[in-house]
Amino acid sequence: MSKLGITDTTLRDAHQSLMATRMRIEDMLPAVEMMDRVGYHSLEVWGGATFDSCLRFLNEDPWERLRVLRRHFKNTKLQMLLRGQNLVGYRHYPDDVVAEFVKRAVANGIDIIRIFDALNDVRNMEQAIRCTKAVGAHVQGAISYTISPVHDIPHFIEVGRQLKELGADSICIKDMAGLLSPYDAYELISRLKKELGLPVQLHCHYTSGMASMTYLKAIEAGVDVVDTASAALSLGTSQPSTDSLVAALQGTPYDTGLDLSLLSQISQHFKEISKGYDIPREIMLGVDTNVLTYQIPGGMISNLAAQLAEQKASHLLKEVLEEVPRVRADLGHPPLVTPSSQIVGTQAVLNVLLGERYKVVSTEIKNYLRGLYGRPPGPVNPEVLRRVLKEEEPVTVRPADLLKPQLEEARREIAPLMQQEEDLLTYILFPNVAVDFFKRRQGLLPAKEEHAGPAAGAETAREKQWGHEDFNQIDRSLLLQDGEEPVYPA
Questions:
Q1: pLDDT tens, position by position, 170-193
Q2: How many other CB atoms sit within 10 Å of the CB of residue 68?
Q3: pLDDT of residue 20
Q4: Does residue 464 surpass a pLDDT of 50?
Q5: 438 phi and psi, to 5 degrees?
Q6: Helix axes 62-72, 25-38, angle to 10 degrees
Q7: What is the DSSP letter of 10?
Q8: CA distance 198 to 221
Q9: 331 φ, ψ (degrees, to nearest 5)
Q10: Would the pTM count as exceeding 0.70?
């Protein structure tokens, strides 16, 4: 039996979940030499919301952050989270952009790319998988875990089989809401291992309080790697504690072999630096069993509450929480993860605030029903489809097939501000934010005051929602990159 592998998420998902993705590179660097000595399977350091947050809030170049971390981590594999055809943004990008992004990510230091799609539509993962294989990095195909009438173990096994056929080197079960129960984990992992013959990794959030128990049953079922976070940034809406799991497995057949003393030193560092960030106590320590009732990730609940507070409608939160599953069912039960969580959550708020379901629908809802985000997991409510699309028929092709190449046109637009090839991708992903960042970098705009997060008092309530994997806004212009619409043909 091989030792259980540990992927530590402290430098990406842990601070994304607890600190709105605001951890600065200077707060990471004092711990990297210790972390590099631990012997982790890998470190998750990039992707998800880190790219956006670096530019928007921290005045950091996300590519330079990756290069700095790569220089310091000499012994440990680095991995990132990629939203399939969405890359690290909130809409689909053309195939040429996906190919270039993957190429640059690996060239700048990424060893393992975890690729997922919010709808588990494998077509939206094909290009990223193909390109990752082409540049020699490890492809981890991720299955977005959720519970619904159309999501069961055979469904997840089939998604895993399709990922294997595309060339995935390993499979990850991505339980972003903490819904996976211990015994379901045992059955799912046992069957994935038996039927696919690939290494299986498990990523759970602690939101419901089940994750540690789920990990133990997964380990007994033969899971190869689990995602954990340094004790100081674990639990709550983050992952289980690395330190606790390592201690629990010492002296067993599943012993990780990791040094608890070294892990304790690392945790002490992050405990100290976390004092400089505003981490709401309920996010850090709370167990939110509402996630089991409404199947809404904890971060999404807090953001829905923030939206309603801005509209002076906090008293409607319970109605919105009840409306989210209804909207989700209308849309064919998509997993609630970026960007589907934003689409579902915002529509639920609109339905409740306006007192009539689908009286107003966002462009994102229309594009979802048009098939421009991919294939819904289950049947869409035909009444909603007729009301929103009228006589229009949804597309059945892979959505990215409708997008024209973008690299060369974007290069012409941004050429005067480019200092590195990676700037082209930054501009395509977040054009308005990128242009401001480039101008500050060249002294064409005054330097933006850096702040670590809400504690600095420089952000609005809406800005605080950025950086969470599951943010939701009533202002739909924030649901797409800088308010731009996807470039699909009429």
A1: 999 999 989 999 999 999 999 999
A2: 18
A3: 83
A4: no
A5: -60, -40
A6: 30
A7: I
A8: 14
A9: -90, 10
A10: yes
